[in-house]
Specification:
The protein is of the alpha/beta class. 36% of the residues lie in helices and 16% in strands.
Length: 352
């Protein structure tokens, strides 16, 4: 991390976390942050569900909720971006404060509740998006919706023409009864509606499913089977956790989803279980607790074809994307892998 980035982070950490979040997006959009551009190599270049990636390091949903900083983020060293979550109707989310830094744990707790500008405003911004890397959208449901499964299809219909992939998010802990949709029957019905909508798009974009880390092995196996039967392009593992095991920070008891360093081992175990359950038939995106090249590499070897992170930027800055990609490239070279795809799943047994 350079001195400018270090000074910027120190300044942001003096602000309320949600204020700092918004300021960081405005600073990016204003061109105040130096950006590395595309980071790639023959080892890092790969594909994800048919999408060409310069490198497998992606931005997780939740940072650029409203697709307001797509141009600078496309030059920040990521291989792909995911924005959102978007809901059919704009909603303010839960009362503030709703974002908490857990500095001692290198973590965060949020209970945003899908605050966003709504699918029409987000679709309008996505229609002017940069085209130099894949951009996807996280699909959400309105808090007051009486048919949450229909909300996902509505957002896909509105925004699908402007993105390269979409993610069905049934794993946020901050919308009441949303995680109930991870059960086999409810999930099967929801995905059927989403995939029917996807078939109506001019471009039949890949659809992913994002799951929670707080699932038992039999639930993970069940979700894997439902996802494969539904024709999904892959699974994102995982969203935030409700666990608070081993936390030290003063804000550890706040309600919401925990992300960051404490999630690494739990999310990687879920990833490995999914890799075993799908037997390599579905691409997996590993998310949760990544802040070093070694952790990125561990998730690749546990079964991830690509990766996402977000919370680590709170502590490592926007330059972390490029540092992860370059560090991963070095680890692949060290171990004799010609391509990142050759390393996928080679260390899965360490997590089972």
């Amino acid at each position: 991390m350079n001195l400018i980035e270090r000074a910027g982070l120190a300044a942001l950490h003096r602000l309320d976390p949600e204020v700092a979040h918004g300021f960081s997006l405005r600073a990016l959009s204003a061109g105040l942050v130096p950006l590395p551009g595309i980071v790639t190599s023959s080892r890092l270049a790969t594909t994800l569900a048919g999408l060409p990636l310069a490198n497998p390091i992606g931005l997780a949903a939740g940072y650029d909720k409203n697709a307001t900083a797509l141009a600078p983020l496309s030059r920040a060293g990521f291989g792909f971006l995911e924005v959102g979550a978007a809901t059919p109707v704009a909603q303010p989310g839960n009362p503030k404060p709703r974002l908490f830094r857990l500095t001692e744990d290198q973590a965060a707790i949020n209970r945003f509740g899908f605050n966003n500008d709504g699918m029409q405003a987000i679709a309008a911004r996505l229609s002017h998006r940069p085209r130099d890397l894949p951009i996807g959208l996280n699909l959400g449901a309105n808090k007051t919706s009486t048919d949450k499964s229909a909300d996902f299809a509505h957002v896909l219909a509105a925004c699908g023409p402007h993105v390269d992939f979409a993610t069905v998010n049934v794993s946020s802990p901050n919308t009441e009864k949303l995680r109930d949709l991870q059960g086999a029957a409810a999930l099967t019905a929801l995905l059927a509606r989403v995939m029917e909508t996807r078939e109506g798009l001019a471009r039949k974009i890949p659809v992913f499913l994002k799951i929670a880390p707080d699932l038992a092995p039999d639930e993970i196996a069940e979700i894997a089977e439902v996802a494969m039967q539904a024709g999904l392009a892959g699974i994102i593992a995982t969203n935030t956790t409700l666990s608070r095991d081993g936390l030290k920070s003063a804000a550890r008891s706040e309600m919401g989803g925990l992300s960051g360093a404490p999630l690494f081992e739990k999310s990687t175990r879920v990833l490995a279980l999914l890799s075993k359950a799908t037997d390599g038939k579905l691409p997996l995106i590993g998310v949760g607790g990544i802040s070093t090249p070694e952790q990125a590499y561990a998730k690749i070897r546990a079964g991830a074809s690509a990766l996402q992170f977000y919370t680590a930027m709170v502590y490592g800055g926007i330059g972390l994307a490029a540092r992860l990609a370059l560090g991963l490239d070095g680890l692949l070279l060290r171990d004799g892998f010609a391509r990142v795809a050759d390393a996928v799943g080679t260390g899965r047994g360490n997590w089972l």
